[in-house]
Amino acid sequence: MTARTATRDEFQSPSLPEQVAAVRARFAELYGSEPQWIAAAPGRVNLIGEHTDYNGGFVFPLAIERYTVVAAARPRTVAAGDAVRVHSALMGETAEFSLSDLQPLRRDWTSYVRGVFAGFIDRGAAPGRLDLLVDSKVPLGSGLSSSAALEVATATLLEGVAGRPLDPVEKARLSQQAEHVYAGMPCGIMDQFSSALGEQGKLLLIDCRSETAQLVPLEDDSVEVLIINSNIKHELTGTEYADRRRQCFESARLLGVETLRDVAAERLATKRSKLGPLLYRRAHHVVTENERTVEAAQALQAGDWRRVGELMYASHASLRDDFEVSCAELDVLVELAQQVGAEGGVIGARMTGGGFGGCIVALVHSGREREIAARIGEGYAARTGVAATPFVTRPARGAHLVKS
Ligand code: ADP
Ligand code: MG
244 and 112 in one domain? Predict the structure, then answer.
């Protein structure tokens, strides 16, 4: 047991200074020099507003105290060519790519990095040759946006390298573009926005149509954000996300609006026959989720925790029944949280992220978070045979340069 485990465990947030120190040491081992630039960008968790982002709607995420750190230096060797080397500590792998041929169609974990390099080159801010090291405390593929953390950390690093600070909104868009074109993932703006614009102690109510964010403080110290990773990722056909998007766009088209954002719940109720049962359920989720999200932000600001909790449970039910993106394991976790209930210190809980696995997010009363996580974890293991991973966070600071 090290001193670190005595003072901090996996349930709490890792220390960013400790992570940065480890990155410096590893960088020196790998490349034989000190990093000249270091940037950090957080993952995010979405409190409410799921599958609303690509429908021009509202989302209500917060940056989490888990960071991706990217460090860089100019290569020591004056070799010919224009290769960038990038090592991922998590993957235990070093990859190379050429600045003059960024290969948008090559799909691997460097896609996110190459896409961000492309964004800078397109803006006339060529970063030049670099050696890079990536280290992350954001769990991969769990709906906490390790991909956006990697993009936004890389973009923040390249702002320093190229001496070209970007407006944070533009940085988010550049990163989103990297994910669209290089990773082939047509995501909304939420993940990159949260990572780039997050502020300590604040959630972001993002209007995905106007791409503007309102910061909403989480002032109540008696409330904690508890994230529980189901440690399940169902590999379905792989087209679920694209299918849901298409169904939403098709519903909007049939309703004669640009996006489902433009439809109110009462109006949707009169259009049932026009959409048919499947599209109606999809649209019903999006339309009601939008309304829940705006209301949840108001209730949170008013400290109306009971209402926030109800809206979170309603969001989960809608994702499970109407949008059909939950899974048995996420349903079990939410059910167990609901069983602990207000009396046991749980305000509300729901699946978070794209679905089919990943995490649930719960709001809980401070001081009871370990006991709550233990109870849910025991029930989950008993029913699924899988060990869940819980941790707590407060809304974290967004992307920033640690060294430049
Ligand atoms: P999420 O964003 O929810 O974590 P995604 O599938 O969008 O899930 O992104 C996960 C992918 O991002 C990984 O499979 C990997 O390709 C890439 N990635 C994220 N962080 C790292 C990292 N530290 N090192 C290498 N690849 C990473
Ligand atoms: Mg992602």
Answer: no
- CATH number of the domain at 227, please: 3.30.70.890
Ligand 1 pocket test: which of 50, 136, 150, 182 has the largest number of ligand atoms within 8 Å of its C-beta? 150
Same domain for 302 and 179, yes or no, is no
Beta bridge partners of 212: 207
Strands (E) across 295-356 are located at 346-352
- Whole-angstrom Cα distance, residue 41 to residue 38? 10
pLDDT in tens, 59-72: 999 999 999 999 99
Q: How many domains does the structure of the chain reveal?
A: 2
Question: Would you say the pTM of this structure is higher than 0.70?
Answer: yes
Q: Is residue 4 part of a domain?
A: no
> What CATH number is attached to the domain comprising 89?
3.30.230.10
Q: Which residue type, as a one-letter code, is found at position 290?
A: N
pLDDT band per the 50, 70, 90 thresholds, residue 7: low
| Residue 328 to residue 202: CA distance in whole angstroms | 32
Task: Note the pLDDT tens digit of each residue in 144-153.
Answer: 999 999 999 9
Same domain, residue pair 276 and 335: yes
Residue 3 domain-assigned (yes or no): no
147 Cβ inside 6 Å of ligand 1: yes
Indicate if 191 belongs to the active site: yes
Ligand 1 close to Cβ of residue 359 (< 6 A):
no
- What is the CA 191 to chain-centroid distance, rounded? 5
The answer to whether residue 340 is domain-embedded is yes
For the chain, what percentages of helix, strand and coil (3-state, to nearest 5) are there?
45, 25, 30
Name the active-site residue from 191, 262, 304, 331.
191
- Taking CA atoms only, the protein residue closest to ligand 1 atom 11 is 147
Residues 209 and 279 grouped into a single domain = no
State the number of CA atoms in the 13 A half-sphere of 336 facing the CB. 26
Structural domain harbouring 173: 13-218+396-403
- Encode pLDDT of 109-163 as tens digits: 999 999 999 999 999 999 999 999 999 999 999 999 999 999 999 999 999 999 9
pLDDT of 2 reads 38
Tell me what pLDDT residue 349 has. Answer: 98
State the pLDDT at residue 237.
Answer: 75
337 in the same domain as 249 = yes
Atom of ligand 1 minimally distant from the CA of 109 = 16
CB 337 within 8 A of CB 360: yes
Residue ID of nearest Cα to ligand 1 atom 5: 141
